Amino acid sequence: MKIPAAVEIDRQFWAQRRVLITGHTGFKGAWLSLWLQSLGAELFGISAGPPSEPSLYALARVGERMRELTVDVRDAAAVREALRQARPEVVLHLAAQPMVRRSLREPALTYEVNVLGTVNVLEAVRSDGEDVAAVVVVTSDKCYENLGGSRPFVEGDPLGGADPYSSSKACAELVTAAYRSSFFASGSGARVATARAGNVIGGGDWGEDRLLGDVIRAVERSEPLRVRNPQAVRPWQHVLNPLGGYLLLAELLAGGRDVARAWNFGPPSQDVRSVGWVVQRLDALWRGELESQLDERENPPEAGYLSLDSSAAEQSLGWTARCELEQALASIVQWHEAARAGEDMRAVSLAQIAQLAV
To answer: Which of 179, 202, 252, 283 has the fewest other C-beta atoms within 10 Å?
Structure first.
């Protein structure tokens, strides 16, 4: 039986729920932590540290309302000990090496974090997760084998990856599927699913080699933005859209629903836009503060087109992408203008969650 469309996040479910987030200091992890704090969850976070300086984690004081440990997910013993301390009911695994270009420089580290780190989290749940009811492993829309074309990927498409990052996310999907069928298929204990989303945007992203991070740095430094591939088309969406999917998926898993599989969480087709279009809109929103130029340097090859078909999540989970791209871009400019003005960025971020996630 299908769930009706536009299902709401259940505040009562999350209130006082023990939740372990890996990678809580990262861009997505920090937004997710803030959202769960606003819902009243009892949070425990593990991370190797903030990914950038400055960071959303620091500016929004994410660590104030949760217990946290500095743990590298490559350290299996430390991950198991953190899980024993947290005794979570829900595990949200976001810790990752998320940069394609860094994966070309450091392929071994990328596989260690993204693949072995996933093994370590799932092994900790298998060995010491007697309280865990739901596990959501976050991978990427780049886990699919991209041979060109313009058809949105569906969950049953072949996995692959032409670079270590993409390949490592496909591997994480395979690892999770193997653990699910081998250790979590009995109907008792944890239920495990994966979530695929990419090109998420929002305030507070200073990530290396990400378009929005590069845009923010260009505006802050009054330097031209170097645009590598303005014709490349991506499924842009505000970070809160897929995060809402992760929360809804965890609720349904914990409630015993038959949703332990892979799910796409992407934007509607009208928000699948080119890099050049996004840059032009941001330039208009920043009232001419953003100057851009074509990057003539030699860069690694990139897929020309990528998008996701999220109809399964919409029809079977009741998920919907609530924040449209135009609204997302406006919220990013508003967030960074508030930061530049010295406002309380925790309050600004929580206000955006209240506005954009409902």
So the answer is: 283
